[in-house]
Amino acid sequence: MRPIRISMVNGLFHITTRCDNKNFYFRQDEDFIEYLKVIEKAREKYSFKLHVYCITSNHVHLLISTPTDDNLSRLMQFINGEYAKNYNRRHKRTGHFWGGRFYSTIIDSETQLLNSIFYIELNMTRNNVTKHPKEWKWSSYSLIFTMEGLSLSR
Predict the structure, then answer these.
(1) Which architecture, in CATH terms, is 11-109?
(2) pTM of this prediction?
(3) What is the side-by-side strand order in the sheet with 103-106?
(4) From CA 86, how far away is CA 55, in angstroms rounded?
């Protein structure tokens, strides 16, 4: 039996979802761009806010909030289902894309929020893929930390 997923109106969540068998399915720029397009499509359909993200070659991290609806499972089902369907069609493949249910953690303190932001944004640097998080173009790092006054490169 699956554990009960806790979601709520006005919740803030760190979401992680992995590719099937930890395979490296995100390979081409088109794969990453398509995922961001599906998120945008989901934002139009389900009112949620995307605060921070990092798309890696075999998993995704999202920091999202659900300000008006208790729709976490529906919106993630839409994102993951739509992306898998599009990916399989583009790459002429069949079968599972994702390796199971997405993971979600409720963010319930400022400390946990900051830890989650840094965990997500430093993911590729922590895993020795990049020397600095600004080098990974498939995260929100450069959108957030390169604005005047927030640069970490000082």
Answers:
(1) 2-Layer Sandwich (3.30)
(2) 0.89
(3) 49-55, 59-66, 11-18, 103-106
(4) 16
Residue 33 tokens read as 């761009």
Do the bridges between strand 49-55 and strand 59-66 make them parallel or antiparallel, or are there none, so unpaired?
antiparallel
Amino acid at 73: S
- Helical H runs in the chain? 29-45, 72-90, 110-121, 123-126, 141-144
Query: Domain ranges in the chain?
Result: 11-109
Q: What proportion of the chain, given as a percentage, has pLDDT over 90?
A: 74
Q: Rg of the chain over CA atoms, in angstroms?
A: 16
Question: DSSP code of 100?
Answer: S
Instruction: Name the phi and psi angles at 68, rounded to 5.
Output: -120, -20
How many whole angstroms separate alpha carbon 83 and alpha carbon 88? 8
Given this model, what pLDDT does residue 100 score? 87
| CA pseudo-torsion sign 30, 36, 41, 42 | positive
Query: pLDDT at position 64, please?
Result: 95
Each residue of 47-105: pLDDT tens digit? 899 999 999 999 999 999 998 888 999 999 999 999 999 999 999 999 999 998 899 99
